[in-house]
C-alpha cells in the first residue's frame, strides 16, 4: 500500500514541477499548439517518469561535483524506496484509504459514462446532416452549439448562414479537425486515476482554454475579430454545459477576448519552448536515478506498481489471502558466465498428478509455476528452459533425456504435494491440514553430486522460507526422483504446496503467490551461482545429511535489547544482510544484500582492522556453545540399552524405523513438545541452530542410546533430548519382515529471526 502511495506522490511532484514551468513561462502565450502538446506530455510523463529507473554507479573523483550530486540524488532515491518498502499501514487505515480512493475514482468514472450517455441521447433523438466526414446534429438543447469528435450539435435558433453563424461553425469545425475530443477523453481518464492530484485539475482547465484559443484563432483568420468578440460578449446560451464537449459559449470569455486582441509575439518564444527539454532531463535525474548497489531492493517498476495497486484493491474488496507472505525481489546478480537452468514441470498430459478438491491438477499448477519462473527471469546470464511448455505427457526417462540434451548447469523439478485424508471412526474422513513447501534431493547413495544438490537446496530453502508458510525443510529420498538421480548437475525437486489443503490450494492457484514463489526460486538460484563462482561452495550454511530436516522459526521477544550489537551494525551498514561467525579459526562472515559474502579473520589484526575500517564497530560474537552436563542415569528419563551389541544394530535396515502416524504426526509432536524459544531465552543471535541427534530404536520401538552429533549450544541440544524423553514408542525397523534394533539420525533446526 505504501509503495503505491509513494508512487502517487512522485506523480504529483512531477506534474507540479512541469505545470509550474507552464504557468510561469508558457501560459497565455500565443504558441497554442505547442502548449497543447506540452500539457498532454505533462499528463502522460507524470505517470511514466517515476517509473524510469537508471542504475547509477557510485565511483567518482573528489573534484567531480556534478557526478557527486547525481550520486547523492541516486542514493537518496534508493534510501527512500528502501524505507517505503520496509514500512506499512495498519490494516484498517489501509482499507480506509483504498476504499476512499476507489470510491472517488468510481464516481468520476460514472460521471464520464453519464456524460457520454447524454450525448448518445442527443444523437438518438435529433436529426442530423452529413457534411463530408462531419455530422451536423440539429437540436434545441441548452448548451449548444458544441462538438464531440466528428459530431457538431447545432442550435437551430442560430442562423448558420449569418456571419456570426459561419464563425461559430468554423470554430466547432476546428475542434473536430484538430481532434480536441481525444485530448478531453485522455485528460478525463487521467483525472479518474489521479483525482487526488490538484495539478491535473488545473491541467484540464488550461487544456480547455487552449482548445478555445486554437478554435477562436482559426474562426477569425479570414474574418472580423471584433465581430467574434462582440458575439461572445452578447451570448445568451450559457445555461447548460455538457461534459467532455466543446461548448462555444461556455469557456471564460475574458481570456479568450484578451487572446483574440493580443497581436504581440512573446519575447524569446523559441527559448521558452526549448527549456522544456532540460526540464525533462532534470525530472529524470530527480526521480529515476538509483544506486547500483541497491538493485537487490528492486526499485519500484511498472510491474510492482500495478501489482501493488491491484493488491491494495484485492485486500480491501476480497481480503488478502497471502498477507503473511513476502518475497524479496529478484536481484539480477552479476554472474561471470551464462548458465542454463532447466525447469521440469512435474507430470503432464494423461499423468495429472495429484488433484485438489475442485479438480485442480498438479500438472497444471507445476506448469504455471515453471512458466512464471521463466517469465520473471531478467538476468541476462541465466537461461531458463522448460522440459515442457504445454500439457503433454513425457515419461521420466524422456524428461531426463530432454534435460540432458540441454547440458544444464542446474535442474529444478516443480511439483505440488498431496496428503491423504485423516480417517475417522465409522469410515469417515476429514481433510488433512498438512501444508507447506518441501525440497527433495536424491539420497547420498544415488546422487551424482550430493554436496552440490544440498548446497542448491539449502540456498533455495533460505529464499523460499520467506514465502512458504511453513517451510518443511530439505529431505532426501530414493524413489520418485529418477530425473534428479540421472542428471549430472545439481538438482532439486520442489513441492510447492499441498493441493489437499483448501487454503493452500487457493494460494497455489493465485498468480501473485505464484510470482512470489517464482521470484524466491530465482533469487535462490542466483545466490547459489554467485556463491559457487566466488567460493566454489556455499561458505556458511552447514550441510545436513539426514532423512528429514524440521525447521522452526522463533521470534525475538521484547526483552532482547540487541546485546550482540547485530541490529545496530546492520542499521549502520544498510548493505549488510546478516552476520555469522566461525569458531575455528575465529572469523566473522558478513553476508551482503547483493548476494556476496566477505570473510574476515578476527585472529589476525590486519584482517580485523580492515573490517573495522570498512564497517565500523563490529558486533560481539556470541559466546561459545556451553558444554552439556553429563546426564545422571537416575534422573535421565531416556532408556539406555545395556544388552545391545554392535553386531545387532542395523544402520540401513530394509524398512527404517518411523514415528507412529508418519511425518505429519512427527511434525505435530514437535510442534506440541518442542520449546522453540530456548535459544532466544539463552541470548542467541539471529541465525540457524541445527541439532543432530542419533539414537537406537529397539525391537518393540523403545528409544535409547541418544548421542548429540551436533549441538550448537544455547540449550538447544538439551531441549531436543528433553523432547525425545516424551516421545512414544516408534515403529521398529524390519529386516526380512522381522523387527530389529536400529540406529537413526534426526535433525531439528531452530531458526531465530531478526525481529
TrEMBL record:
SMART domains: Ami_3 (SM00646). Residues 400-526 form the MurNAc-LAA domain. Keywords: Hydrolase, Membrane, Transmembrane, Transmembrane helix. GO terms for biological process: peptidoglycan catabolic process. It catalyses: Hydrolyzes the link between N-acetylmuramoyl residues and L-amino acid residues in certain cell-wall glycopeptides. The chain crosses the membrane at residues 6-25, 37-56, 100-121, 133-153, 185-203, 270-289. It comes from the Bacteria. It is an enzyme of class 3 (hydrolase). It holds the Pfam family Peptidase_M56. Gene3D superfamilies: Zn-dependent exopeptidases. GO terms for molecular function: N-acetylmuramoyl-L-alanine amidase activity. One of its GO terms (cellular component) is outer membrane-bounded periplasmic space. Its EC number is 3.5.1.28. InterPro entries: MurNAc-LAA_cat, N-acetylmuramoyl_amidase_3, Peptidase_M56. This is N-acetylmuramoyl-L-alanine amidase. It comes from Sediminibacterium sp. KACHI17. The lineage of its organism: Bacteria, Pseudomonadati, Bacteroidota, Chitinophagia, Chitinophagales.
